[in-house]
Amino acid sequence: MALADCRIVDLPKIQDPRGNLTFIESRTHVPFAIERVYYLYDVPGGAERGAHGHRTLQQLIVAMSGSFDVILDDGRESRTFHMNRSYYGLYVSPMIWRNITNVSSGAVLMVLASQRYDESDYFRDYDEFLEAARNSR
Length: 137
Ligand code: TYD
Description:
By secondary structure, this protein is mostly beta strands. The chain is built from 1 helix and 12 strands; from the N terminus they run E-E-E-E-E-E-E-E-E-E-E-E-H. The chain has one helix spanning 126-135, and strands at 7-10, 13-14, 21-22, 36-40, 49-54, 59-65, 68-73, 78-83, 88-92, 97-101, 108-113, 122-123. The strands form 3 sheets. It has a 5-stranded antiparallel sheet, with no helix packed on it. The chain has a 5-stranded antiparallel sheet with strand order 8-7-10-5-12. A two-stranded antiparallel ribbon has the order 2-3. The mean pLDDT is 97. It binds thymidine-5'-diphosphate. Residues 36, 38, 40, 49-50, 52, 117 line the site of thymidine-5'-diphosphate.
């Protein structure tokens, strides 16, 4: 898996004078069955989240409110995605290290995930991640 597999997904947006509506369906708008949803909120100014990688987990990250930057790194190159629209999702493939920075006040960051929480799927150490990324190529 590489950074090239990660991409912005243009989610459906039903425009309506009463307010817009976006929906996400398993396997249609994300290439996996959604097993878990979690969200980050009340993030204090200057706080950074992420700083880990996953062995097998796939995710879609959506800025439900506010904005933030997601820095993705496959061990060879990195790319920053600025997220600030709730009709865009950022698909993150397995074997990607991610850092989340510049979280705006009041931002809500929703993550759809392909598996339930499993600590053994995490890389918490960057050097360990780099080694595994190298070996998986
Ligand atoms: P973590 O994934 O490290 O958060 P972030 O990447 O946003 O900085 O998770 C933080 C803590 O929350 C960690 O102790 C594990 C726990 N957690 C769960 O119990 N279930 C979950 O689904 C998630 C995402 C985290």
